[in-house]
Every structure is written in C-alpha cells, then in structure tokens.
Design a protein that fits this description.
Protein name: Superoxide dismutase [Cu-Zn]
Number of strands: 9
Keywords: Copper, Metal-binding, Oxidoreductase, Zinc
Organism: Rotaria magnacalcarata
EC number: 1.15.1.1
Structural class: mainly beta
Distance between the termini: 34 Å
Number of domains: 1
Cofactor: Cu cation; Zn(2+)
CATH class: Mainly Beta
CATH architecture: Sandwich
Oligomer: single chain
Radius of gyration: 17 Å
Largest sheet: 9 strands, antiparallel
CATH superfamily: Superoxide dismutase, copper/zinc binding domain
Length: 185
Amino acid sequence: MQATANLQLHTTTTSIGTLTFFQQDANSPVHITGTLRSLNISANHGFHVHVYGVSGSSPNCTAAGGHFNPYNTVHGPRSATIMQRHVGDLGNITTDANGTVTINIQDSIIQFYNATQSIANRTIVVHRMYDDGGMGTGDSNLTGNAGERVACGNIIMMISDGINIKPIKSNLVLTMMLIIMIFFH
C-alpha cells in the first residue's frame, strides 16, 4: 500500500515537499521517503503522525489533534516498543545548512494493513523543536517537548495507478453507484 502527504507550512499554502509512505505487506515496515525544504537550518525537528486529518488548502496543523496513540501509552522514541511509545512517534528529522532534509525512515509500528495502527487519512506533522523521546520534563511524556507545529500534511492513500483515494469522495461515489444499482435493478 502506498500513500503521499504534501506538507505545507502551518496555515499557509506554501508547500515544503511531499512524502511517500509505502508498505509492501502486513509484515513489512512502512518506508517514508521524500525531501522537505524551508525548515529551520541545521536543526532537529520532532516528526509525528497526529490523530486527525486537516484542511488540504492551508492546513491548521493544531487541528490535527494529539499524537496518534491508539494504545494510550506514554510518548517515546521511535526505537521504543509499541507499548513504550505512541504509534505516531517518529522521532526527529535533521535539516542541513539550507533548511532541507531528505527523509528515508522505516518504521514497523505505523501501519496501513492493521486498522488500529493505520496512519491512513491522518496527519504527518513537523514540530519546531527537538523531540526528547519522552526523557525530559514537563510535557515530555505527552509531546516529547517538540514545540509548536510548523508544517503538516494529510496522509492520503493511493491506489495502484497512482490515483488518490479520498475517503469522503470515494464513499459518496460508492453510495451513488449503489443507489443507481438498486433503482435500476
């Protein structure tokens, strides 16, 4: 299964790049690849999947809710087990001197095939600061003290020919087809 996310700066139409999410099968990790630009230079940014999808035109990243955490666990580093981190905890990404980062991450806890852990139709968020992996003080066990949300994008599933599957539109089309079939049957 494959999905993409076009990340935009918080509440703007400015795109900073597109990420691709790919999972070969239910036993494979999700592979995240892509390049993001226009971030703080030479900085670590917390990188998480959040619960809710956001507006695609100029996303309000705070509307994405908290970190995706279906098992109600504490915040942790990406290397932690499923019961020692949020499903959406993906650690940090590190930018270069130009504010650019090339992402090439594999994670076995986020999923597309397991409904409870599925990141489909959720939001990937880049935070302003370093994620301390739940090892700090204050909100560390909840947020990793990663700070405000600077960019985000919806994780949109793709079908094999590369067409986006948008849940609301696809459900509407299926419902219309069903009504037509019932009416003419």
